[in-house]
Amino acid sequence: MAIFSSLFAVFMAGIVFLIRMKAAKKPTSAKKIVLPPVFMSTGAFMFLHPMFRVTVLEFIEAVMIGGLFSILLIKTSSFEVRNNDIYLQRSKAFVFIFVILIVLRLALKTYLSRTIEYGELAGMFWILAFSMIVPWRIAMYVSYRRLQREINEKS
Questions:
Q1: Interior angle at CA 80, CA 148 and CA 96, nearest 5
Q2: Cα–Cα distance between 111 and 38 in angstroms, integer?
Q3: Segments of 55-155 assigned E as strands
């Protein structure tokens, strides 16, 4: 099960990466920034099942690591204005950091699976991912709104 979930995580990361690269070719919108964490939030239903519940300490650890990882994503995500439209800027650093985060995630999962049960570990990694994505998307939204105001003031 751990191997399957790791392969699935790599597959999903590849899809996210492709979507991100494709998104840089089209103007972005507030909706495109806000909706991914909203959709991901439905994963919290997993915690209704006792197998996925985590301790307070595991929750705090996952949130802290997710917050640290989000800093890397925030630093490598920026926008540019082209023809009064806002585009997500492509970044070679984003690609590099994204791959490192996936490898680090797999290494942590492999190491932690020795001492933490599968369900708890799955819960921790969902919390970590959500704690990484939400601050990143909030920072992107704030940056997007700032650029949008600048465009509106010039018009």
A1: 130
A2: 30
A3: 79-82, 85-88
The torsion angle over the Cα atoms of residues 44, 144, 16 and 74, rounded to 10 degrees, is -80
Spatial separation of the C-alpha atoms in residues 76 and 84, rounded to whole Å: 22
- What are 85's strand-pairing partners? 82
Residue count of the chain: 155
Q: pLDDT tens, position by position, for the chain (155 residues)?
A: 667 777 777 787 788 778 777 777 889 999 999 999 999 999 999 999 999 999 999 999 999 999 999 998 899 889 999 999 999 887 778 778 878 888 888 888 888 888 989 899 989 999 999 999 999 999 999 999 999 999 999 87
Cβ–Cβ < 8 Å for 91, 24? no
Contact 87, 79 (CB under 8 A): yes
Residue 32 near residue 19 (C-beta atoms within 8 A): no
Q: What is the pTM of this model?
A: 0.84
CA distances from 51 to 70, 100, 123, 126 (A): 27, 29, 9, 14
Q: In angstroms, what is the C-alpha Rg of the chain?
A: 17
